TrEMBL record:
Protein name: Helix-turn-helix protein
UniProt-annotated stretches for the region Disordered: 1-37
Alphabetical list of CDD domains matching this protein: HTH_XRE (cd00093)
Keywords per UniProt: DNA-binding, Plasmid, Transcription, Transcription regulation
PANTHER family: ANTITOXIN MQSA (PTHR36511:SF4), MERR FAMILY BACTERIAL REGULATORY PROTEIN (PTHR36511)
Molecular function per GO: DNA binding
HTH cro/C1-type domain segment(s): 80-115
Pfam families: HTH_3
Taxonomic source organism: Tautonia plasticadhaerens
Keyword Repeat: no
Source superkingdom: Bacteria
């Protein structure tokens, strides 16, 4: 028999506690949560952008230009010359550029022209061949391709 009339299970576990509020929630009537305030602010901003009111003209976008020349035109002869400057086979040149050997072949045979990005890179090779020769030498590995 237990003294005090209560069960031992209740005495051992103690009084029940309320769980703590989850992050972002508030208990009682202390006001809106941070998430609620954030959503309200975003909605207000979106509405201001959509309106023709005073806030609409405050949004500006600036465009900056680099003022660089467009990529050079690269025909078959220029593509071959860039590769020759580095003294590379079509296969190794293609690996260096990150394209397939068939792409380099197509450029050199005039079947397809290089993309603007490739033309820019080929132009840089022609402009600074010694720099790119050093870069290629720094990456050369002996052994089978692909490993």
């Amino acid at each position: 028999m237990s003294r005090g009339g209560g069960s031992k299970a209740k005495e051992a576990s103690g009084p029940r506690r309320r769980s703590a509020p989850r992050p972002g929630k508030t208990s009682g009537s202390s006001g809106p949560t941070a998430g609620t305030r954030l959503v309200a602010a975003l909605r207000e901003g979106i509405e201001a952008l959509r309106s023709e009111g005073p806030g609409a003209s405050a949004v500006t976008v600036r465009t900056y230009r680099l003022g660089v020349e467009p990529p050079p035109e690269v025909g078959p002869a220029e593509a071959r010359a860039a590769r020759a400057e580095l003294g590379l086979s079509q296969s190794v040149f293609a690996e260096f550029l990150g394209v397939s050997p068939s792409t380099v072949r197509a450029w050199e045979q005039g079947k397809r022209g290089p993309s603007p990005l490739a033309r820019r890179f080929l132009g840089e090779i022609r402009r600074e061949p010694e720099h790119w020769r050093r870069a290629v030498r720094a990456h050369l590995k002996e052994g089978p391709a692909g490993g």
